[in-house]
Amino acid sequence: MHAHSRRNAIRFALLVAVSPLVASIPSTAAEIPLAIKGYDPVAYFTDGKPTPGSPQFEFEWDEHRYRFASAEHRDLFKADPVHYAPQFGNFCAMALALNQVVVANPENWLISDGKLYVFGKAAPFGPELFQKNLVSNIAKANQNRSILPKE
What we know:
This protein is an alpha+beta fold. The protein is 40% helix and 17% strand.
């Protein structure tokens, strides 16, 4: 084997050995899923309303990119993400209580006992229905958490 052929064989072997490692490394932030369609989770608590976040104020937590309306909101989230993040991620809490998977619309929401829940549908289906049997629905949704897809 010539020196040139040996070098190519070694390069090929290294490429084959390294390529699975490279493939598993995210190359851009866009590959990390956006949480709650880009809405600011802190704004539900501080402003009492759904507020779109800005790409300028992002923070990655729990394999999702969260967006915030301000640096202050981002910093509040960083300090206590478990408090501010929606209980079932991007999914409807009421549907999950019914053993279904529905992507939530961040415009439909509820804060109860200091926790944020988002829903797929507006009243009377989402927040209102969830509140009617709040303790039971929370328990059922938590029991069904395993059916949620890994995003």
